[in-house]
Amino acid sequence: MPAVLEIEGLRKTYKSRRRGTRNALDGFNMRVEAGQVHGFLGPNGSGKTTTLRTLLGLIRPDGGRMTILGHEVPDALPVVAGQVGAIVESPQFFPHFTARDTLSLLASAGDVPSNRVDEVLELVGLRERAGERVKTYSLGMKQRLAVASALLKDPKLLILDEPANGLDPGGIREMRTLTRNLAESGMTVVLSSHILGEIQLICDSVTIISLGRRVAFGPVDEVLAQHSSGAVRVRLEAVTDLPAAADALTRSGIRLTGHADHLMLAGVDKPAVVTRLLAEQGLYVSELSPVAVDLESVFLELTATAPVPGQHRQVDQSLKVGGAEQSGATGGGWGA
């Protein structure tokens, strides 16, 4: 079965007198299977938005191959446009129009049956507020209206670029629920976001891009496993034994960091060796637990955007990293 979206060797070069030649995309590859929520991640300037705009025919590539639903694009965009919904950058709506008027206008322009307007309003949770003017909407409601516009044609593939950008925690949770519901209905969703904790919660698979090239790809759990740092937290029965334990482990070639009530060990392949080594010194372990790597630390390492290059940041909670990648265009929906 062909992939819903496939990109092979995509290249795009920009030239300017001031900055010279810049490779925005340098042989980039991407594959998204049917029914997935696929996370597309990259820091500012990585080529992420350029990829999406090229895929949708808004930018002409310099080389490579792209297919959507088995059809090569951009040549076949007229064939597949009705099966793709996309929000790339924040769309602009007429502020004095109601949500229903906005969607009715888009539906009429796209030959979409009028009853579909109420269906998508229900899907995004705006049906009760559909008669209110868009200028009265919160940012989260405007984001949901944007998603509604992309859903009008009941697409097989939905592309969302930073749909949770600027939302409060409640709005982010609503967007998460909406995305999962769409995927469970059989739709394939490509989700670009800087909120890495959300990507880890929502997505089945992920592609990470840096400097125009793919640096990671696959199911989220496999990507995390491939980049596990082997960090282990060690606590002893007696806190006063920590200095002696640190000395013994260091002499055995184990890299570690000391903390007030525990030791953090790096690059440990077999944690049981630590227990045996300390027991031989009369030091007894009360806790020996691997520290799971999260998507944020993998992203920071692979894209060289960590505060200390090449070092994992082991954290207990996923944090938001950076802001949305912007190109300065007004943007808008595609395929509505």
TrEMBL record:
Q: GO: which molecular function terms?
A: ATP binding; ATP hydrolysis activity
| The keyword ATP-binding is assigned to this record | yes
Give the start-end ranges of region Disordered: 311-336
What InterPro entries does this protein's entry cite? Answer: AAA+_ATPase (IPR003593), ABC_transporter-like_ATP-bd (IPR003439), ABC_transporter-like_CS (IPR017871), P-loop_NTPase (IPR027417)
Key words of the record: ATP-binding, Nucleotide-binding, Transport
PROSITE patterns assigned to the protein according to its UniProt record, in alphabetical order: ABC_TRANSPORTER_1, ABC_TRANSPORTER_2
Chain coiled-coil ranges: none
Q: Which residues cross the membrane?
A: none
Keyword flag ATP-binding = yes
Q: Which SMART domains match?
A: AAA
Tell me which family the UniProt entry assigns to this protein. Belongs to the ABC transporter superfamily.
Protein name (record): ABC-2 type transport system ATP-binding protein
Organism equals Micromonospora avicenniae
Q: What is the lineage of its organism?
A: Bacteria, Bacillati, Actinomycetota, Actinomycetes, Micromonosporales
